[in-house]
Automatic annotation (TrEMBL), chain A:
GO terms for biological process: chemotaxis. Residues 386-583 form the Histidine kinase domain. GO terms for cellular component: cytoplasm. Signal peptide: none annotated. Residues 575-712 form the CheW-like domain. This is Chemotaxis protein CheA. The lineage of its organism: Bacteria, Pseudomonadati, Pseudomonadota, Gammaproteobacteria, Methylococcales. Coiled coil: none annotated. It comes from Methylomonas denitrificans. The keyword Nucleotide-binding applies.
UniProtKB/TrEMBL annotation, chain B:
GO terms for cellular component: cytosol. PROSITE patterns: CHEW. SMART domains: CheW. GO terms for biological process: chemotaxis; signal transduction. This is Chemotaxis protein CheW. Residues 22-169 form the CheW-like domain. Transmembrane segments: none annotated. The lineage of its organism: Bacteria, Pseudomonadati, Pseudomonadota, Gammaproteobacteria, Methylococcales.
Length: 717, 188
């Protein structure tokens, strides 16, 4: 792999990760206002911005660095508590998030440099942030001027600032030991320039009690030197015993060290080592600190950071920076342990192979059953149970929590409610509910439609809500839960509900329903899924064009799901989407008709009963109720002798029960769905196919379309 | 260049139909007639058997088979030509053919075709290929790419993308199905 390719790969990873981080950032920002304890959230947001800035810097994407830097600064002041969370702040930061997404997508599209229009947009956004950054712009200006002046002078050779701060109190006996403090200070001057030196003479006793051979003086020295701390410390090696020597980075150099600590590599997660590496403490100081920690009796209670600060070898802000870095390293490690990135295609390939494995093991087991070899049968049984476990865990790999999809709607709801001038909050429930990745990918669009619809048509304006005795703020909720092998997603609003009469009138006007037809509420509500149906009086930007609900229904049908509407006038509407957990495998019930086998999805099957004496009617009595049934033999035009005793499989769809008459009941099975392809797309009542253990292909019956077909065409064959 | 010239020479006779190229062909018998498929589109030959019927399909779609874990539709070529269903005999086989769907971004689909017997793979040269006559073969002229002379008899070179056009067959099934329903309703 050439260097260029490596860079390209790395850049790709950068784009993916940054987009993910920005998503996290957006989620964090959206939750900021409602979070009673936002500090953890702010930290997370800050870290995301910081990471993006750092990585962008690695790739030399200066425009991203420049923009992100300002955002980061605002977040930093927020983190320090100098700025409070406010809706205005969130409103200013969200577009910045968007802009960063744009910038990063720009990078992935191949233009690394900011084009001018983006820059103009960026400037506007940054100006918006500026007011948060500098609440009192005058003061900030002077401060900035100050530093620039000082920097200029240091550049000009007249040094008025140093980088090390030394406190030295020579030991009382050093003169007696033949050590002259002055010579050390002179030697110190060889390492750099002594910017200032203050002598402390407060320890000096009165003249009569003074011992001329005792050293009393203390010195505070500001040193400007390129040497690191260890070198400076080594100057005083001979007098360390009995002397009090502290070397600290100068206060105005702290930010430099903080940055140094932040930029350290990630292999050392020990606090002491981080400080040591950045050069703010020396090995000896660390060792002393550790000794002090060990010496604490009975249990070392103080932490090394606290000890080091107590011993005045390092300042508190540096320890804080190191602690934060340590936390970050830990977080990264933890994240690495939690998840690995896998190409979705590889996962699909694995699932496919396991599907084949399921089929082959079923075939092996079938052969085993036919032989009288008990040991073989037992071995087969254990293989099958293992294969089932493997399949279940493979399917688990594809399962993702629906929460990520739901969270995207926080932003959507926020933006749309602003656009509509309505106050609407989004309540999310069941975010941990897991569902197959392919389902998650395809459910986004239909959900978007439903959410927009609910906000536009469902929830009334604030005035009207108050009039109806409801809180001014509308509530939209997204909820998900598992129910008997399905995932149920609910989109509900507390708006005005569906207008039954209006829908009916419109349907009659459009000729969808005969005037005077007696329809149940369910049937009337279902009319809104008809193509081109809209009851909105005004066509808005968002919805009301009558395009959408039929598409929603079709999309959901493609996922083998169904959608139901429940609506109470004045109370609100709930749309309930029922989807299978996975698109690849279903639990089925196998039934034989003539020489063919059919699979009926198990979640549709209610019970099986024997067909009473066949009197050539297509209905029977089931516990006092009429049960219409479909003779699969007739429907599928199967010839051959009829079984002596036919059975009825009772299936259910939308609360409607029907029977399917079959020759044989062959029991439950789990099976891999194989699509039938375009050639068979029009075949009603068949939803796909599957390969049985015998190698034979069995058709999977699609109960909803089968029942619908019967309703529309009640006189088959 | 010569090929181009040949095509242009033959265009008026061929009435705008593409003429088959020289190359290797798989020949098979079906209903007493000799047909050939380009070797590149033929994937494999299997014995007839274990076929699952799909209801509500026209007679030329026999059903589906399990080809090592994939579900492959099987087309009765004789019925597709309008000559009635192929009777199943001992030597009946299924040739798996790969078709390219132009309408659907060039995706490929495997289809099986029922044949009475598979004969051999032959090399057919350009000079042996004659344009298809506009009538007389008993099948739609657009199904034929050309006629190849071989051992004193003609082999019909099939136009696979036309004969096994999934789009056309799907439309036909839909229409056929609708008509059937209509008849059913009248009968009921």
């Amino acid at each position: 792999m050439s260097f260029d390719e490596q860079m390209r790969d790395a850049l790709k990873t950068f784009v993916i990760e940054s987009l993910e981080l920005l998503q996290d950032m957006e989620d964090g920002l959206l939750g900021l206002e409602i979070d009673p304890e936002p500090s953890e959230r702010i930290n997370a947001i800050f870290r995301a911005a910081h990471t993006i800035k750092g990585s962008a810097g690695l790739f030399g994407l200066d425009h991203i660095v420049a923009f992100t830097h300002v955002v980061e600064s605002v977040l930093d002041t927020l983190r320090d508590g100098k700025l409070n969370v406010s809706p205005e702040l969130v409103a200013a930061l969200l577009p910045c998030c968007d802009h960063m997404i744009e910038l990063i997508q720009g990078v992935s599209d191949g233009h690394a440099d900011a084009n001018s229009s983006l820059s103009a947009a960026a400037r506007q956004l940054l100006d918006g942030l500026e007011s948060f950054l500098n609440p009192e712009p005058k003061q900030a200006m002077t401060a900035v001027q100050d530093t620039s002046e000082r920097l200029e002078s240091s550049g000009g050779g007249i040094v008025d600032s140093g980088n090390w701060h030394l406190f030295i109190q020579f030991g009382e006996n050093c003169l007696r030991d033949g050590m002259d403090p002055l010579s050390f200070i002179r030697y110190l001057a060889t390492l750099g320039e002594i910017v200032s030196l203050t002598t402390f003479s407060h320890a000096m006793p009165d003249a009569d009690s003074m011992d001329p051979e005792t050293s009393y003086l203390g010195f505070e020295i500001v040193l400007n030197s390129d040497a690191d701390k260890a070198t400076i410390e080594s100057v005083f090696d001979f007098v360390r015993e009995g002397s009090y020597i502290h070397i600290l980075p100068l206060e105005n150099r702290i930010p430099y060290y903080v940055e140094l600590i932040e930029s350290l590599g990630e292999e050392n997660a020990q606090l002491g080592e981080l400080l040591l590496k950045s050069g703010v403490i020396t090995q000896r100081e660390l060792q002393e600190g550790l000794n002090a920690q060990q010496a604490q009796i009975p249990q070392p209670s103080a932490r090394i950071g606290e000890i080091l600060v107590d011993q005045q070898v390092v300042q508190q802000p540096l320890v804080n920076a190191a602690l934060e870095k340590q936390q970050q390293i830990k977080d990264n490690k933890a994240r690495e342990n939690q998840s690995i990135r896998v190409d979705a295609e590889r996962l699909d390939k694995l699932i496919d192979l396991i599907g084949e494995l399921v089929i082959s093991s079923a075939a092996a087991s079938l052969r085993g059953m036919q032989s009288a070899d008990v040991v073989l049968q037992e071995a087969n049984a254990s293989v099958i149970s293992l294969v089932e476990e493997v399949r279940d865990s493979a399917l688990q790999l594809r399962m993702v929590p629906i929460g990520t999809t739901f969270n995207r709607f926080q932003r959507v709801v926020r933006d749309i409610s602003k656009e509509l001038g309505k106050d609407i909050k989004l309540v999310i429930g069941g975010a941990d509910t897991e569902v197959d990745k392919s389902v998650v990918e395809k459910i986004g669009d239909p959900l978007m439609h439903l959410v927009r619809n609910a906000m536009d048509h469902g929830i009334e304006r604030a005035e009207q809500r108050l009039e109806n005795g409801k809180p001014a703020q509308g509530t939209l909720s997204l909820n998900a839960y598992h129910s008997s092998g399905n995932i149920v997603i609910e989109v509900s609003d507390d708006g005005g509900g569906l207008n039954r009469d209006k829908i009916l009138a419109k349907a009659i006007e459009r000729g969808l329903v005969q005037a005077g037809a007696a329809l149940s509420d369910q049937e009337i509500f279902a009319l809104i899924f008809e193509p081109g149906f809209s009851t909105a009086d005004q066509i808005s930007n968002l919805s009301g064009r009558g395009v959408g609900m039929d598409v929603v229904k079709r999309n959901i049908a493609e996922l083998r799901g169904v959608i139901d509407i429940d609506s109470v006038p004045g109370r609100g509407t709930t749309l309930k989407i029922q989807l299978p957990l996975t698109l690849a495998i279903i639990d089925g019930f196998l039934a034989g008709v003539g020489d063919a086998s059919y699979v009926i999805p198990l979640d549709r099957v209610v019970e099986c009963v024997e067909l009473p004496v066949d009197d050539h009617r297509d209905y029977m009595e089931l516990r006092g109720e009429v049960l219409p049934f479909i003779r699969l033999r007739q429907l599928f035009r199967k010839t051959g002798p009829t079984a002596k005793r036919q059975n009825v499989i009772v299936v259910e769809h939308l609360g409607f029960k029907a029977g399917l008459v079959v020759d044989r009941l062959l029991g439950e099975l789990q099976t891999v769905i194989k699509p039938l392809g375009k050639l068979f797309s029009h075949v009603q009542g068949v939803g796909g196919s599957t390969i049985l253990g015998s190698g034979e292909v069995a058709l999977i019956i699609d109960v909803p379309t089968l029942i619908r077909q019967q309703e529309h065409n009640p006189f088959p064959g | 260049m010569t090929e181009l010239a040949t095509i242009q020479d033959k265009l008026p006779v061929a009435q705008g139909k593409t003429t088959a190229m020289a190359g290797q062909y798989l020949t098979f018998t079906l209903g007493g007639e000799l047909y050939a498929l380009g070797i590149l589109s033929s994937k494999e030959i299997i014995d007839y058997g274990n076929l699952t019927e799909v209801p509500m399909m026209p007679v030329f779609v026999r059903g589906v088979i399990n080809l090592r874990g994939s579900v492959v539709p099987v087309v009765d070529l004789l019925a597709r030509f309008g000559k009635g269903a192929t009777p199943i005999a001992k030597r009946t086989g299924i040739v798996i053919v790969e078709t390219i769907n132009d309408a659907d971004d060039g995706s490929t689909q495997d289809l099986g075709i029922i044949v009475d017997a598979v004969n051999e793979v032959v090399e057919i040269s350009q000079e042996d290929i004659e344009p298809a006559p506009s009538f007389g073969t008993g099948i739609r002229p657009d199904f034929i790419n050309g006629m190849a002379k071989r051992n004193g008899r003609f082999v019909i070179l099939l136009n696979v993308s036309k004969v096994l056009s999934v789009d056309e067959m799907a439309t036909l099934s839909k229409v056929g199905h609708g008509r059937e329903l209509l008849l059913d309703t009248e009968a009921g």
